[in-house]
Amino acid sequence: MKKLMAANWKMYKTRVQAEETIKDLLRLLGDLPSDREVAVFAPFTALDACGRALPYDACRRAFDSSDACVRVHQKASGQPAASFFLGGQDVYPAAEGAFTGEISPGMLLDCACRFVLTGHSERRHILGESNEFVGRKTAFALEAGLDVVLCLGETLEEREAGKLEAVLREQFSAGVAGVPGDIAPQRLSLAYEPVWAIGTGRVAGPSEILEAHALLRDILRKKFVAQADQMRILYGGSVKPDNASQIIGLDNVDGVLVGGASLEAESFSRIVLA
Ligand code: PEP
C-alpha cells in the first residue's frame, strides 16, 4: 500500500501563491519513491490554479482512479508519474441546489480533485459539524466519485477522561454509516488527528499513535472485513520534517496529514521524502 502524504493548506494562499507552491513541490519531488502518493488539500479558490499546474492537467478530468491518471500521464509525458493529487477541504452532501456558500462533489471533480477531507477537527469544533453530518458528507462524496479522507480524533478533555476509544468508535460509526461494506479500499482513508496536537506543536508520542492506529485498524476490520487492511490510516497533528520519518515508520501509519509544515514546499517535500 502506498503511503499518502497529504498537505492541508487550510485558509492560506492566493491562487498565485498556491500555483507557485505546487510548481516548487513538483520540482522538489521529482524523484518521488514508488511507495508514496502526495495529496494537496488546497482552498477552494486555488484548486483550479493548482490543477492547471499539474503535469497531467490534460487528463485531469479523464481519470476515474489514480491508476488511470498515472497511466495517461506516463503516456502523455513519457516521464514517470508524479502520483500527485488534489483534494478539497470540505464538501456539501448534495449534487447542487440552494446551499449558499457550499461546494458540491461535482465541483471538486471539475477542479481536478481526486480527494476530499471530511470531519476535520476545525470543522467539527469551530463550525459545529456533527458526527451525523460528517457521515452524510462521507457517503455522498464517495458515491459521487471522490476518494475520502475521514478525519477523527479526541480532544484533550476526552483523552484525560479515558474516552479515547468511545470517541473514535462513535465518530467512525457515524462517519461511515452510509458507506457500503465492500467499497474499494483505496477510496476511503482515515486520518487520526488528536485535537490537542493540531497546530499546537505538541505531537502525539509513538505509544499514543500506535494505540490509536491499532484501535482504528480493529474498528475498520469490523465494518470492512478483508478490505480493512488495505485502507490507509494517516496520522495528523504537528508533523514536521524532523519527526516525520519516525511517525511514518510506525505500525499502522499509512501516511500523514500535515497542516502548518505543508505551507512551504521545502518543508513539506522533506516530510514527503522522510
Ligand atoms: C491539520 O490541519 O490537519 C493538521 C494536522 O495541522 P498541523 O500539522 O498544523 O498540526
Architecture overview:
The chain is of the alpha/beta class and 274 residues long. The protein has one domain (3-272): Aldolase class I (TIM Barrel). It has eleven helices and eight strands. Helix 1 (15-28) links the parallel strand 1 and strand 2. The radius of gyration is 17 Å and the shape is globular. The structure holds phosphoenolpyruvate (PEP). The site of phosphoenolpyruvate has 14 residues, from strand 8.
Can you describe this structure in just a few lines?
This protein is α/β, with parallel strands linked by helices. Helix content is 40%, strand content 15%.
Number of strands: 8
Q: Strand share of the residues?
A: 15-25%
Average the pLDDT over all residues and give the rounded result. 90
CATH class: Alpha Beta
Task: Record keyword descriptors for this entry.
274 residues; TIM Barrel; eight-stranded parallel beta barrel; 8 strands; 15% strand; globular; binds phosphoenolpyruvate
Q: Would you spell out the secondary-structure blueprint of this structure?
A:
Blueprint: E1 3-8, H1 15-28, E2 36-41, H2 44-53, H3 66-77, E3 84-88, H4 105-110, E4 113-118, H5 121-125, H6 131-144, E5 147-152, H7 156-160, H8 164-175, E6 188-192, H9 206-224, E7 233-236, H10 244-248, E8 255-258, H11 265-272
Parallel strand pairs: 1-2, 1-8, 2-3, 3-4, 4-5, 5-6, 6-7, 7-8
The structure holds phosphoenolpyruvate (PEP).
